[in-house]
User: Fold this.
Amino acid sequence: MPSMHLSQVRRWIFQSPPVEWAILQLRELLIGALRQGPIPQHVAFVMDGNRRFAKSHGIETVEGHNLGFEALARVLEVCYKSGVKVVTIYAFSIENFKRSKYEVDGLMNMAKVKLAQLLQHGDLLDRYGVSIRVLGQRELLKPDLRADIDRAAEMTSRNGDAILNVCFPYTSHDEITTAVKNTVTDYSKPLPVHQRPFSESHIKQTIRSRHLSVAASMIRDRSGSPSSRAASDIEDSNSSSTTLHPESPPEDPPLPVKEAEDSDAAWPNAYPDPESITPEVLDNHMYTVGMPPLELLIRTSGVERLSDFMLWQCHEKTEIVFLKCLWPEFDLWQFLPVLVEWQWRRKKKDEQGRMSRSLSRSGTTAAKPKMR
Assistant:
């Protein structure tokens, strides 16, 4: 009982206007200090813990999700004000469709409500130029929800300073599978004729011109008369011009049009080389194509797994942070230590890189012989 009274007193103190103003000023000061250092350009969140928060506080599950949305609005403002360009959130997994129909329908209805609430924060999205992109298998959603998603994307399409990726419904395995399928489809299409380096008719004309050049040189060697030498010079000049300019037709009649057309038709279809498929090619088929690489991934609630989220986008420089706080509790005061630690590690890596480059340059200079 005393703890409950103490909590109410603490809440009353923090909600008083002077304290709220002081906290707001401190918040702005801290965000301004963060902007002085490096900022991750792409941050992803696994928003976990809404249900557990509701259960631990004795409130309805829906209210826990509502508080989770309020936490998302706070975190988005901190991210975009700090200089983050892309924020990706895990809103709904494809695996969630395996739950009961009642629960899935409830989650879909909640998604519509949350999307509407997100658009209600239009001042936040417009202030930082944020465009909404929904990533995932849209075909699994109902038509009315797809219409709401299209409307949200259209309303923010003119914003180009930052991006909010809402993964819904999404799994990383599905994204990678889709990217591989699309890559195979692209590499199964024959190249256009104008992109082929040679055609059969062009090769035939080149061989004929070379044969003419050899024949002219043989005639010139056998003949010693001035007239023959002059004729051979003429033929030599013609063959040389044909060799230097293979596109120009030879002196002999060229292949008939029908024969050339038949030759091109008989030439087998040319396809892109599968050996040219690289990680960059697959990157161009991912949902996050053209976006900055993922630099920071945060999951709340103390669960230490990725849950099939952004597996392809995580690379050797991505920092993954697991926090014990539940998502509705996540705000600047939990986010700030993560960003400060990320900045410290980034500065340390940059200093190590500069030191190694300096040592390599000094070693190269010492290895060079001195000029006398």
